[in-house]
Amino acid sequence: MIQRIQSLYLLLAAAAGAAALSFDLWRATLSNGVKQSVNASSNYLLFVLYVVIILLALVTIFLFKKRKLQFRLTIFNILFGFGALAWQYYVVQQTANKLNSGGVSITTASYLPASFLPIVIIILLFLAARGIYKDEKLIKSLDRLR
Fold first, then answer.
1. What pLDDT, on the 0 to 100 scale, is given for residue 21?
2. Residue 1 pLDDT greater than 60, yes or no
3. C-beta neighbour count of 53 within 10 angstroms
4. CA of 22: how far to CAs of 37, 58, 71, 141, in Å?
5. What's the pLDDT tens digit per position in 86-99?
6. 14, 77 Cβ separation under 8 angstroms
7. 129 with 10: CB under 8 angstroms?
8. Using one digit for the tens of pLDDT, what is the confidence trace for 36-51?
């Protein structure tokens, strides 16, 4: 199970999702000296997307006997990863717009390293899907030899 490289990729993708849940994604310093930050827990949909990504990656690890289902779930998880990435940047933009329209100006703002974890998740899930596809292709070629 963990001997297969795609299982390791799926485990790393789940860990990256957990890290994205744990850390701040964006931080801004306002003109009055207050620091404002955005994390995955501050938005319900973003939180749910990351939890789905984590759980789906962990469940997919244990479907090693059903490679077709494992491949499909990994592809769905990649789509959830793209959704989390897009929604994360939308939430940050909305927060910045809300702060600016509230009469408070943002002096400095920056994305934190955790905001790039969805890209890492997508890459890891793609590598896992590629490994699952190679396994399925190998099994089909072995069945042809019989």
1. 92
2. no
3. 28
4. 13, 18, 28, 43
5. 999 999 999 888 88
6. no
7. no
8. 888 888 889 999 999 9
Cβ-based burial of 31 (10 A; exposed 0-12, middle 13-18, buried ≥19):
exposed
pTM summary value: 0.89
CB neighbours of residue 24 within 10 Å: 17
Half-sphere exposure of 66 (CA within 13 A, CB side): 10
Determine the Cα–Cα distance for residues 57 and 127; give it in Å rounded to an integer: 13
The phi, psi pair for 24, rounded to 5°, reads -70, 145
Higher pLDDT, 66 or 2: 66
Distances (CA, A) of 63 to 11, 57, 80, 116: 13, 10, 19, 28
Compute φ and ψ for 39, nearest 5 degrees.
-130, 175
CA separation, residue 69 to residues 14, 55, 59, 129, 136 (Å): 18, 15, 11, 11, 11
